[in-house]
Amino acid sequence: MKRVAVFCGSRDGHDPIYMQKSKQLGEVLAKHNIELVYGGGIVGCMGAVSEGVLENDGKAIGVIPEKLLTVEIANEALTELHVVETMHDRKAMMARLADAFIALPGGAGTLEEWFEVMTWAQIGYHEKPCALLNVNDYYTPLLQLFDHMIEQGFVDQLNKDIIMMQEEPEILIEQIMKGL
């Protein structure tokens, strides 16, 4: 596994654990010589994960739409920074560059980006791992929603089963590497 795309919030969240675990994920990626592919910003969890990578001599590749250059404040210290025209271009480039996908806590944008690549895995467009870092039980309600969708007949159990989820960055990365 050469690169992991990380989808995450451009905010810090209310509990400091979100920023701590984001930075820790970056540190773990660097430790395993796995390059980070992410949204390219220096704010929120995005900034923390890239900081964890860069402070540990890792490589970080940012992909940011022109419109968000000042909102998410592009990180000029990255190994590579790709400025693209649209969010669609961002997602396509991140998907192309990555060997696996992880969602850290975030908002609607984080969920939308992760659900797109997860849906692609479900329908066979790729076989790359799709994972959730379940910091502070952030994604536990999402898995409960999957159970509800299965119960109601809109999702098959095998679609839920492709989701990897752990609470600790090191364990999640090890799980992803074993799954490849």
What is the CATH top level name?
Alpha Beta
> What's the total number of strands?
7
- Which percent band covers the strand fraction? 15-25%
H/E element sequence = EHEHEHEHEHEHHEH
Mean pLDDT over the full residue set: 96
Instruction: List the strand order in the largest sheet.
Output: 4-3-2-1-5-6-7
Q: Radius of gyration, rounded?
A: 15 Å
- Euclidean distance between termini CA atoms: 8 Å
The best one-word shape is globular
Which consecutive residue ranges, at least 5 long each, have pLDDT under 50?
none
Class per helix and strand makeup: alpha/beta
Give the helix level as a range of percent.
Answer: 40-55%
Helix count from the secondary structure assignment: 8
CATH topology: Rossmann fold
Largest sheet data: 7 strands, parallel
- Please give the CATH architecture: 3-Layer(aba) Sandwich
Number of domains: 1
